[in-house]
Model the fold of this input.
Amino acid sequence: MIRVPYRTAFALAAFLAIATGASCDDAPSPGEAYASQRLLRCEKAHACKAQYPGVDAAFELTWSSDLEGCKRLYGWSGAIGGTIEDQVNQGRVAYDADAAVRCLDGLEATTCDELWSPIGALQEPKACDGVFRPILGAPAE
Done:
């Protein structure tokens, strides 16, 4: 499997955005950040499967039996990310692009021991906590 770092994926997206006349920032859009977090979680979980402290059945229930299944399970296709984009654009969810970059960098740097500690619980960098926040009192449609 060839693993493409998320920054490479964003560079490609930036090139395509420029080529098509779309605007482009250095930070990922909410949908890109959401999809990249999902992808990195799946990649890390499967790369660290041998160190998973639980039984295989528990791992597969949460992360699927293979990376492609995990990506389908967690909506890496971007369809869910589009929903996040809508929620941010409608003012229902706050998005912190700087936290998204720190989160993605932290996910990439996480070791297998860090990933599964405490026992069996996927741990994420603290920056990931602040990427998306619901806006209390936001209007419902």
User: Anything to note?
Assistant: The chain has one domain: 28-134. Residues 109 and 122 are 14 Å apart (CA to CA).
